[in-house]
Amino acid sequence: MNHHQQTIISAPSLKQFCEEVFAQRIPREEAVRVADNLVEADLLGFSSHGVCKVSDYLQRLDKGLIENRTELKKVTESSTASVLDASNGWGQYASVEAMQEAVEKAKQYGTGVVGVRNSNHFGITSYYTMMAARKGCIGFASTNASGLMVPFGSREPSLGTNPISIAVPAGEGRDPIVLDMSTGNTARGKITLAKKTGDAIPEDWAVTKDGKRTSDPAEALEGYLLPMGPKGSGLAIMVDILSGVLTGALFGSGVPRMYEDPEPQYLGHLFGAIDVKAFMEESAFYEKIMERVAQTVESEPMEGFDRVYLPGEREQEKRRAQLEEGICLPHEIFAELKHMGEVHQVDISQFVKSDW
Q1: From CA 269, how far away is CA 84, in angstroms rounded?
Q2: What class has domain 1-62+326-356?
Q3: What is the C-alpha separation between 103 and 141, in angstroms, rounded?
Q4: Which of 282, 92, 79, 82 is nearest to 168 (CA)?
Q5: Which residue in 3, 49, 121, 331 is the catalytic one?
Q6: Going by C-beta distance under 8 Å and a sequence separation of 6 or more, which residues neighbour residue 42?
Q7: Which strand (E) or helix (H) includes residue 194?
Q8: Which of 128, 264, 271, 348 is the most exposed place for a label (fewest CB within 10 A)?
């Protein structure tokens, strides 16, 4: 297979194309959020959560596994906490609403925590924590996912890759410090992508359904993901409790699989915001943050390393580069998008920058 066939498309064009496709099926304001989240994932280099998900999402919509409009209902509310029911609507739409509410509560009371139940795949986790960081809050976000990962030492899957993100504002004109991690050794989307592009996968990513290690993405997709050792396993269980159990969503082995099970997933997410000003003067906080940043980035790199990065820093560099040069899409993903465009009467060629 020719791995060098790629199509370059500018981020705004790609976003516009995805938005137009989704807007044929769901309300425009929801289409905007879903498209923005997927393109942001590609910009940051999380291509397994990028526009390769467009056809996956639309297939779920075709099968009636996700509603074509998100109806948010408030389940509980206090000054600093609330729970929203997404009624099996779009994860990205519900999550933006939830994080906006968490930030509003934080601005008023110092902290805000908002849970979402009965939701769907919400894209990249850092998308929401960055929202908080841009408003001068420390953001927290987590979600549970299809039970496709085994707990450490087990042969039976009862965990998703259950990601967690924390973003810390670093002051005016500086990128927030952002942790965005899956608790598995890899995201399942990376295995799906490897299957689409015909690549082998590392042996510590997944096991076959008989519990044996494999480098074949097709076998891995029929089997289970591996956690990031006992620590990743422990963190995944806690994320499942915070995102799934606490919000009243489905959890653990009760979460249907995104690709194999013909039923809604009813996922749970948790969003938190801490207003820095509730702890100290913002200027004092940012001064300390700069000192903390320096301790990492100005430290002497060890052999084999050019420099030491902060969490999220390399992704921001990739984002800036791709905003200038365009996003490189593998041929297979571009073909999939082109097809989705044809089905929804949106011609992708009018958005493409160049082909090489």
Answers
A1: 10
A2: mainly alpha
A3: 12
A4: 282
A5: 121
A6: 11, 14, 50, 51, 322, 327, 329
A7: helix 188-197
A8: 264
Strands 111-119 and 81-85: parallel
- Check if 121 is active-site: yes
- Look up residue 180 and give its amino acid: D
Fold of 70-184+227-312: Ribosomal Protein S8; Chain: A, domain 1 (3.30.1370)
- In the chain, the largest separation of any two C-alpha atoms, in whole Å, equals 57
Domain boundaries, the chain: 1-62+326-356, 70-184+227-312
Residue 150 token pair:
């085994």
Residue 285: which H helix or E strand, with range? helix 282-297
pLDDT tens digit at each of 356 positions of the chain? 445 588 999 999 999 999 999 999 999 999 999 999 999 999 999 998 999 999 999 999 999 999 999 999 999 999 999 999 999 999 999 999 999 999 999 999 999 999 999 999 999 999 999 999 999 999 999 999 988 899 998 989 999 999 999 999 999 999 999 999 999 998 787 898 899 888 999 999 999 988 899 999 999 999 999 999 999 999 999 999 999 999 999 999 999 988 888 999 999 999 999 999 999 999 999 999 999 999 999 999 999 999 999 999 999 999 999 999 999 999 989 999 999 999 999 999 888 865 44
Query: CB atoms < 10 A from the CB of 155, how many?
Result: 11
Locate 160 and state its tokens.
Answer: 């998703």
Across 17-35, b (16+ Cβ under 10 Å) vs e yields bbbbbbbeebeeebbbbbb
